[in-house]
């Protein structure tokens, strides 16, 4: 929870000071954006720790107009990395009836440059996957039907359990749950099979043919933030 003061006051997007926190990841201020500053510092420290293999970053948000759960992902110049990034949302689509892969989008929208998903996607290396998980404020439509099912607290919690289940499926594919979860090199590149998932109704599109954007990890260590 990176916006506790804003949420306490009833805001769902802005902090107490009026900042949209998910637009300030590039250069968070310890005074104006203390939660982003602290989390970014922690992520960089984890990434630079040779004993830690940082593989996923998932930022969770509610969406005010679209239905279902869906994800935003990044576009990469490397086609293999781009295809591997699609594995997790495809697996989640198989586990969660309210998750829509057809609404999942991979993009490099300029207005999203300051989001955690976009910024960390460029900061971390090619074995780290960064997503935004969006979930409707209102309802979801199960594939093959037209009736909207209102979200309840239990339905949101069920989606969270399905995300956890998807991690288990993902690591089974990587054969990591069949042996002790030891630290693995950051250069590991497993071959994962292609999955089919029934698409569900949604308003978004996947932009697999969008222009790729180049990423650089050269300045990662330079962006480590001083301890407070």
UniProtKB/TrEMBL annotation:
InterPro entries: Cytosolic_carboxypeptidase, Peptidase_M14. Residues 192-228 are annotated as: Disordered. It comes from the Eukaryota. Residues 1-171 form the Peptidase M14 domain. Its cofactor is Zn(2+). GO terms for biological process: proteolysis. Residues 208-222 have a biased composition (Basic and acidic residues). GO terms for molecular function: metallocarboxypeptidase activity; zinc ion binding. Gene3D superfamilies: Zn peptidases (3.40.630.10). Residues 197-207 have a biased composition (Polar residues). The active site is at residue 134. Belongs to the peptidase M14 family. This is ATP/GTP binding protein like 4. It comes from Phasianus colchicus (Common pheasant).
């Amino acid at each position: 929870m990176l916006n506790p003061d804003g949420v306490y006051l009833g805001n769902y997007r802005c902090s107490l000071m009026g900042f949209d926190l998910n637009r300030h990841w590039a250069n968070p201020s310890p005074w104006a954006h203390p939660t982003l500053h602290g989390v970014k510092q922690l992520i960089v420290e984890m990434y630079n720790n040779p004993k830690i293999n940082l593989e996923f970053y998932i930022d969770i948000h509610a969406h005010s107009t679209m239905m279902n759960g869906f994800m935003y992902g990044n576009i990469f110049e490397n086609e293999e990395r781009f295809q591997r990034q699609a594995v997790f949302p495809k697996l989640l689509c198989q586990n969660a009836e309210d998750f829509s892969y057809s609404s999942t989008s991979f993009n490099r929208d300029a207005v999203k440059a300051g989001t955690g998903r976009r910024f960390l996607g460029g900061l971390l290396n090619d074995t780290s996957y960064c997503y935004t998980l969006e979930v409707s404020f209102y309802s979801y439509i199960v594939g093959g039907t037209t009736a909207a099912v209102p979200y309840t607290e239990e339905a949101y919690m069920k989606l969270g359990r399905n995300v956890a289940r998807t991690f288990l499926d993902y690591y089974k594919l990587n054969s990591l749950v069949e042996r002790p979860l030891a630290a693995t090199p950051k250069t590991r590149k497993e071959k994962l099979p292609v999955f089919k998932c029934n698409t569900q109704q949604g308003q978004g599109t996947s932009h697999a043919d969008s222009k790729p954007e180049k990423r650089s990890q050269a300045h990662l260590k330079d962006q480590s933030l001083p301890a407070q």
